[in-house]
Design a protein that fits this description.
Blueprint: H1 11-26, H2 32-46, E1 52-58, E2 62-70, E3 76-78, H3 82-90, E4 94-96, E5 114-122, E6 125-134, H4 142-158
Antiparallel strand pairs: 1-2, 1-6, 2-3, 4-5, 5-6
Length: 159
């Protein structure tokens, strides 16, 4: 069962607490959709200065909108297009300080100014991406990248 934890201490301590919460939320739950929905909700509550947290799932052709928290979003994203499509195609985390300067950026929410996208890879296969937007330029740093990659690793174990 989920137990709320206060987000006090250093960023590293906060990240450790949230990863523990995520692990507890998804443990023993076989539904990928339920786990992704809870992960989006948890990250949305924890991460300050964000306006969209969610997942796009790969259907074998393109990324399709999955569980998320925020305003309605683009439903389908081709591989290689925008930040999500680039992360998925290149299978690497992409951190963008200013989305308006990113070639091919897909503007789902005009309020978004920075973005981080972490690919979800299971057994060498693309499963989807974790996408987080912020209205603040340069919102995401390397510590966020490491934390979110660990969160995705926990999710991959349950997929």
């Amino acid at each position: 069962m989920f137990q709320a934890v206060s987000y006090e201490g250093t960023r590293s301590e906060q990240h450790t607490a949230v990863l523990g919460q995520l692990s507890a939320l998804i443990r023993d739950e076989p539904s990928a959709i339920a786990n992704l929905a809870n992960a989006a909700a948890l990250l949305n509550v924890f991460l300050a200065d964000t306006n969209w947290v969610g997942f796009y799932l790969y259907d074998g052709k393109e990324l399709v909108l999955g569980p998320f928290q925020g305003l309605p979003a683009c439903i389908r994203i081709p591989l290689g297009r925008g930040v999500c499509g680039t992360s998925a195609a290149e299978r690497r985390t992409v951190v963008v300080d200013d989305v308006h300067a990113f070639p091919g950026h897909i503007a789902c929410d005009a309020a978004s100014n920075s973005e981080i996208v972490v690919p979800i890879i299971k057994d060498g296969q693309l499963y989807g991406v974790l996408d987080i937007d912020s209205p603040i330029k340069s919102r995401f740093d390397d510590e966020d990248r490491v934390f979110l990659e660990k969160a995705v690793s926990l999710l991959v174990e349950q997929l």
